[in-house]
Amino acid sequence: MIDQLTIRKLGPDLSEKIENLAEREGISLNKALLKLARRGAGLEAAEPKRDVIGNSLDWFIGSATEEDTRELEEAMAWFGQIDEEMWR
After folding, report:
1. Which of 25, 68, 70, 88 has a Cα-to-Cα distance from 2 of 20 to 30 A?
2. d(CA 33, CA 22)
3. How far is residue 50's CA from residue 72's CA, in Å, rounded to a whole number?
4. What sections of 1-88 are H helices per DSSP?
5. pLDDT tens digits for 15-51?
6. What is the CA radius of gyration of the chain?
7. 3-state secondary structure of 15
8. C-alpha torsion 17→21→27→30, nearest 10
């Protein structure tokens, strides 16, 4: 089992990710790197994004058939009609 590991030349993109995570969570760079490594290895789930409401309807995206689309467009057609009486 490896207890310590020296990593060289992380590169600017990975360094930035580590620094951002450490700053955002108020943890050390070492803890941030370990957290990212555990996620990458599938040992820890990524935390949900705070600015995202949820993904419970992801299955629905792109699932409409042509018939579904036609029915929806027909049902919404009246939204495009202007009631001339209301605009006088």
Report:
1. 25
2. 8
3. 32
4. 12-25, 29-40, 66-76
5. 999 999 999 999 999 999 999 999 888 888 777 666 6
6. 25
7. helix
8. -30
CA dist., res. 22 & res. 32, Å (int): 5
Q: pTM for the whole thing?
A: 0.50
Q: Which of 9, 32, 31 is nearest to 20 (CA)?
A: 32
Dist CA 21 CA 40 (whole Å): 14
Q: Tell me the C-alpha distance between 80 and 88, whole Å.
A: 18
Cβ proximity of 32 and 47 under 8 Å: no
Contact 22, 12 (CB under 8 A): no
Q: CA separation (Å) from 50 to 10, 47, 54, 62, 78?
A: 27, 9, 9, 24, 37
